[in-house]
Amino acid sequence: MLTFIGLGLYDEDSITVEGREALRDADRVFAEFYTSRLVGADVADLETAHGVDIEVRDREGVERDPEAILSAAETDDVAFLTAGDTMISTTHTDLRMRAEDRRIDTRVLHGVTAQSAASSLTGLQNYRFGKAVTLPFPYAHGGDGVPESVIEAIEANRERGLHTLVYLDIKVGTGPTGPDPDHEEYMTADYAAELLAEGWADTVGVVVARAGSPEPVVAADSLSGLADREFGDPLHMLLIPGDLHHVEAEALVGLAGAPESILE
């Protein structure tokens, strides 16, 4: 059995009760933290809180060489952990399909996602979001500024009146000069706003920082204004609102400090 368990958004307590029980019952536990991570807990915290030993796999060990995970799941109850909800990344869907091809039973125990948290914290209605995008570090896509694909996706959403959730790049194990096992880098919302302000300086953006933590930060302003602010420790997200229902506009003013001009 291979059980995919989402750990939620922040620390060792963010997991669901169902996920916690499955984790503690597992014979072996694997995890990856290159697609996202918990900023309020490290691997040692998770091991102590749940009484398990966790084998962390890098991208190579999940995407190209998952044999250790799959062979263990053929005979034992194996848990595979990720931050957030475990099936948001296509990497994990591929691993599940490989297990199914080998007639290994699988199940999915969900965790809170960044997308649902972003909607809940900002007051932007979840059914009014369009395609989400990931904003990479310029060095990661070999160019300057914002990739054309990101610009096109945001513009397409705005033309349809839809909100855009912009995930901000995470680099773990790879830096500007190539593979580096000690490298960890998290794009900040002010830096992302600075990049996007080149095309949309006066457009309202919304920052969500440390969703799932005891004190998340939610702030709305023009993108150029957000670029001049600091939002503390990671993880950060940035949202570009589309057309606003009056309740959404009121929520951004009241919950995120948006300029009252958006109510007009």
Automatic annotation (TrEMBL):
Gene Ontology biological process terms from the UniProt entry: methylation; protein histidyl modification to diphthamide
HAMAP family: Diphthine_synth
Stated family: Belongs to the diphthine synthase family.
Job description of the protein: S-adenosyl-L-methionine-dependent methyltransferase that catalyzes the trimethylation of the amino group of the modified target histidine residue in translation elongation factor 2 (EF-2), to form an intermediate called diphthine. The three successive methylation reactions represent the second step of diphthamide biosynthesis.
Subunit structure: Homodimer.
Native source species: Halorubrum alkaliphilum
Annotated binding of S-adenosyl-L-methionine, by residue: 9, 85, 88, 113-114, 168, 211, 236
Protein name from the UniProt record: Diphthine synthase
Catalytic reaction list: 2-[(3S)-amino-3-carboxypropyl]-L-histidyl-[translation elongation factor 2] + 3 S-adenosyl-L-methionine = diphthine-[translation elongation factor 2] + 3 S-adenosyl-L-homocysteine + 3 H(+)
Residue ranges crossing the lipid bilayer per the database entry: none
Gene this chain is encoded by: dphB
Taxonomic classification: Archaea, Methanobacteriati, Methanobacteriota, Stenosarchaea group, Halobacteria
Molecular function terms from GO: diphthine synthase activity
